[in-house]
Amino acid sequence: MGVVAYSITQSGLYEPFELQVSRGQILGHENQFQFGVNQSVGTSFSTIWNGGGTLYSYPASATVFKISSSDANDTSAGTGARTILINGLDANYAEVSEIVTLNGQTAVNTVNSYIRFHYMKVATAGTGATAAGIIYVGVGVVTAGVPATVYGQITVGYNTSTSAMWTVPAGYTAYLTSCTWTSGNTTANIVITGAIFSRATNGVFTTESTCKMLAGNSFDRHFDTPVVFAEKTDIEMRAASTTAGSAVTGEFHIIYIKNDVGG
After folding, report:
1. What is the mean pLDDT of the chain?
2. Strand pairing partners for 250?
């Protein structure tokens, strides 16, 4: 019989709290690491996600999403992405996910309805081992694989969506422990302003944390006392640049804990 390797927690010794959460050893605790990139931040705040543009627009109500690709090779028997995993929140703000089989530029409907999109990633692929085109999730008329309204996308080469935003599921409270902004623009004298915004249910977005950095630099913040967010709160990272067109990435880590029920 082989030797059984017990974890140090099972042996009654110390193990970091964050590692215990990641290992699923603490009941009701989950973690979320969210990251995004915006290749063209403007002079006004833009959401850090790979859809570019200015501020992200959220679905007004739960809806069936359409999944499609800009490339015909992203299909069930193609050389590109074949299936994707999508994760988000349903009409009750409960976490839901599913696997969707792609059909190239032709949209495929999700089984679930989503009020929030969190992320998606390539689950299986053909001989190319990556998505051949941009994978989109959205609603409305789909033209050449692009839906009229885009809620998320996988950029070629990433195999996962890159969106620095997340919504707290119902029945949970979230605790923001750290965040990082990084500027990819090395032009002298450009200043990047980063900020974390949040919006409670039926509320407005307000600033939770800010930073300023010169182009080509990064800014890292760890909260000694984590920032608390109630259930159904939208959280997103934004950035603005003194010169339009700057590339900025953002990432944040959250631990979310199931709320106590009753007494």
Report:
1. 92
2. 36, 181
Cα–Cα dist 81/122, whole Å: 6
Longest dimension (CA), the chain: 66
User: Is the CB of residue 122 less than 8 Å from the CB of residue 84?
Assistant: yes
Q: Determine the Cα–Cα distance for residues 213 and 159; give it in Å rounded to an integer.
A: 29
> Where are the chain's structural domains?
27-56+165-258, 63-154
pLDDT tens per residue, range 218-238? 999 999 999 999 999 999 999
Distance CA 179, CA 19 (A): 18
Region of 108 (left: φ > 0; alpha: ψ -120 to 50; beta: rest) is beta
The end-to-end CA distance of the chain, in Å, is: 47
Token code pair at residue 170: 């119902």
**Domain 27-56+165-258 CATH assignment equals 3.20.20.120:** no
255/30 Cα distance (integer angstroms): 6
Structure tokens at 50: 């790979």
Nearest Cα residue to 32 out of 244, 245, 239, 226: 226
Q: What is the pLDDT of residue 9?
A: 57
Q: Is 197 exposed, middle or buried (0-12, 13-18, 19+ CB in 10 A)?
A: buried
